[in-house]
Amino acid sequence: MLGFEEMRRLRVCLEDKLQVDEGDSFNVLMWRTFVDRCVREYFAKWRKGGSSELHVNRESLAKGSVIGVLSQVRPTDNVPLGGDVEQLVVKIQPFLEVAFDMPGPKRAPANTPEARVAKCQADIKAGVYDFAMISQHDELMQAFVTKKMTEHSKRNGYPLLEGTLPGPYDVYELSSTRVGVRRSKKPCSPFSFLRHGAAYSTVLRMKNNNKTVVRVSAKNSPTASDWTNAAPILWEFLAHYNSEEGVSQTSKLLQPLTNYVFYGEFNVVVKKQVVGQKKFLSGLHFKLTNGHTRYQKNCLQYFDTFASLYEHNPLWKTFFDDMGAGSPPVSYLAGIEEGLRNYACDPYPMGRDAMRSQEKWASVDLWRKREAYVTLIRLLLSRNSYHKWHDFLFTDFAERNKLHTTFKNRHLPLSDGDSTNFGGLIKNPPHWTEPIPPPKHKVARTAARKPNLKAVKKEQVQESKSVPMRFDSKSGTLVEFIEIE
Fold first, then answer.
1. I need a surface site. Which of 107, 115, 216, 307 has the fewest CB within 10 A?
2. 366 vs 225, which has greater pLDDT?
3. How confident is the model at residue 201 (pLDDT cuts 50, 70, 90)?
4. E strands present in 50-200
């Protein structure tokens, strides 16, 4: 609660500095009430954030305060300055500085990527989310997920079900004005409420980041209690999807999407018949792990060079999951790269035409190369197959994350097709130096045209002198058509 001194300074400031435009429908008394509520909201958010100084992140806290007060105003059209948040923040900042006796405002740094990330982090703490920025930076995504998990900690990270819950057959309309937003309305299978383009890009990004849904029982958990990462995975999916679709924090579509991701269901179709329904989380797990089992076949055959070297160098085991901190020999790195390229002969693990050119090989999805590496290491260490996701081993989950980080930090930068990375131990295919042939475009199928038949006048028909014939299967020759009497 605000102290006497803060309220005294605020009243003096309101008397001296509050000026209302003549065309503003808000009178002085209503403006004083609005500013007073914004100041109290600012103080409440500062206490909740745990910062030691009131002036730290003042812009983000002020923005969150204005949004919080505007959400409480009823009716919604009775808001100052038309509800323009940016103008209102500029309007109340002088009163905040006087009420809390803040030092002079610090000038924002140059418009650099680091400054934008820092500002977005402060916005997240204040409850303001920019999904486009959050989706581009891992640290912002972690801050967003942490914020949501903290807000809904009593429900294991799940939000309250507010409003309507979209059904398996529902669709939505979205007219986003953001540049680069997908316009296709094709539904995603099996999540018919979501759109295919945005859902596919979201799943691909999460697979590249090694995001999978697991549940660990108490007997396998280091904390001796059940654990799952379901809620963080769902929050991350929601943030990525909102970024792809151009959904903002104030969009009316945000709440239905949140309800569907956390509580929605999809139809289970077998032989074109709906046989039941499953939760969204179950379908998301399938999409995030789809394709992982295709690397078991012929893995040691593709990595035969590395496997033979490992038999004579058992100490290489320390490099498998060292998070990229060690310095293995060039032969170690070349053996891994050679095995990855050998996988390209199979179109399913690495994708079609993965070795068509250097650019094509460098653009292969991260998860495809990583899964080959993970499969190799687990085979060399004689690991058993993974448990089901709803009874996963925590040791396997931790090891998998270490292997992902190791591959991403050490092997992925070298797997760009540059032959100089391995000191001449690997040579690029000869056809990489040749010009890349243009891709084959499918010829669009056109509808069959009906022949333009002209009516033939009777006098134009000429009698044919030839006799109609048919093929006789018994004699193997052509015979005349003879009517049977």
1. 107
2. 366
3. very high
4. none
Q: Can you give 252-311 as a three-state secondary structure string?
A: CCHHHHHHHHHHCEEEEEECCEEEEEEEHHHHHHHHHHCCHHHHCCCHHHHCHHHHHHHH
CA distance linking residue 355 with residue 340, whole number of Å: 11
Distant-in-sequence, close-in-space partners of 89: CB < 8 Å, separation ≥ 6? 59, 62, 63, 66
At 160-193, the pLDDT tens digits run 998 888 888 788 876 655 556 666 778 888 888 8
Distances (CA, A) of 314 to 309, 310, 411: 9, 6, 19
Q: How far apart are CA 187 and CA 220, in angstroms?
A: 39
Alpha-carbon Rg for the chain in angstroms: 33
Q: What residue type is assigned to position 85 of the chain? A: V
Given a contact cutoff of 8 angstroms between Cβ atoms, the answer to whether 118 and 64 are in contact is no
- In this prediction the pTM is 0.69
Answer yes or no: are the C-beta atoms of 10 and 99 closer than 8 Å. yes
Measured over the CA atoms of residue 273, residue 277, residue 280 and residue 283, the dihedral's sign is negative
Classify residue 98 by its DSSP letter: H
With beta carbons less than 8 A apart as the criterion, state whether 298 and 375 touch: no
Q: Is 438 within 8 Å of 356 (Cβ atoms)?
A: no
The encoded tokens of residue 263 equal 């509580």
The residue type of 317 is K
Instruction: Report how far residue 429's alpha carbon sits from residue 354's, in angstroms, rounded to the nearest whole number.
Output: 12
Place of tokens 């600012």: 42
CA–CA separation, 172 vs 166, rounded Å?
Answer: 9
Angle 212-390-239 from CA coordinates, rounded to 5°? 35
Q: Is the peptide bond before 190 cis (omega within 30 degrees of 0)?
A: yes
- Among 75, 92, 78, 79, which Cα is nearest to 38's? 92
Distances (CA, A) of 306 to 25, 309, 346, 370, 429: 76, 5, 19, 16, 20
List b or e across 373-396, with b for residues whose CB sees 16 or more CB atoms inside 10 angstroms: bbbbbbebeeeeebbebeebbeeb
Residue linked to tokens 């979501």: 194
State which amino acid sits at residue 194: L
- With residue 474 as reference, give the H or E element that holds it: none
